[in-house]
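Ticket reopened. Same input as before:
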Amino acid sequence: MAVEWTDLGLVLSVRKHGEYDLILHVLTQQHGHYAGVVKGGIGRRTRGLYQPGNRLQFRWRARLEDHLGTFVCEPDRMFAAAALHDRLMLTALSTLCASAEAVLPEREAHPLAYHQACHLLENLGDPNWVSDYVLWEMHLLNELGFGLDLTSCASTGVTEELIYVSPKSGRAVCRKAGEPYRTKLLSLPAFLKGEYIKPLNKDDVIFGLDLTGFFLERYVYGPHGKSLPSARQRLRALVAG
Amino acid sequence: MAGPDIEALIRQLAKLPGLGPRSARRAVLDLIKKKESLMVPLIQSMERAVESVKICSTCGNFDGQDPCALCLDPKRDRSVICVVEDVADLWALERSVSFRGLYHVTGGLLSPLDGVGPDDLNISGLVARAGADEVKEIVFALSATVDGQSTVHYLADRLDGTHVALSGLAHGVPVGGELDYLDDGTLSAAMKARRPV
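Engineering reply: fixed in the latest deploy. New output:
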């Protein structure tokens, strides 16, 4: 008996399959990272749907659970079109899709990563949207089991003046305890502790990108012999200006 | 059913875009039936093409000479270079008779997922051409896709600091298009790119 489900999801990557078909990788709300063939996906009328970052309604169907399966898609929100004209937004969208495809295991639900990705895409261009990107990477680390503990100081246990993160433990360190080691510690921007600051300081966003980038590289990409996607490096360079 | 030579020919033709095994079989059958009027001239044309067709070292176009006829044409506007992804795009623009400048074929788009980086594309040639005094403008005619526009932004960064003006094709409502049938993305791009009337 055929296996079938319907779910909302984001297109992560698109590859040609033969002359007329596509293979999509998507991040769905309830089913996580899935792949499937879109028959006739290269057709002129539907090609615009299958752009990384677009949110579509997917119907996935396969004869057996292990098969690649086929997608039938309906549009929901075309996030890619809104980002095409802005290099920073487009780079963030590309990085989000490339990272999710590279690190999220297939056929495993990651609703938090999905919802945070949707939140980011819905707010692209709003003030402080770049900090939402950093928060998305924090969620990604959490989802993959490498979440950072930023609630209290790893050394003294205090919960105030947490301004560093230990690269060894991934835990916050307070100003006093971290001062002698400050060149070896990573900076912890206030927005990652849930403190709402408006407008955000560019340096804080860069500290955030460096923080999540460090742990993604160490725990997620490094063990597979990979480095951060090139789009992610470009995003950091663009934010730094 | 058919001899090994015919089967080999069918297999070769079936590799071409737009042809599958069935249509390749029909094409081969027709070629064999019209051996003198179709097959022999086709073979001769293909042999000539193999010998003569070159990739233009200036723009990346295909032609029987290097530099290509477009690059050598004195009537063309040498102050504008249009950047396209593929020779097929160059031919499409030439069919439209809307552009009389020179071209530059990148040979693809940047795609981190597929491992296509700047070194895999003909970008250094474009940067070198942009440095010439006679070039005043570069028009990016790349796809309105995430990869296409990422490539545009990358090229714009690479050309930052040169004296040339950079522009891109408009995105929006196609000629003959009805708003009701357009997708949200195209409509939103059209609204952003609105102009005074």
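The beta strands of chain B are 54-55, 62-63, 77-84, 101-105, 137-140, 165-168. Chain B touches chain A through 23 residues (CB under 8 Å). Please confirm and we'll close it.
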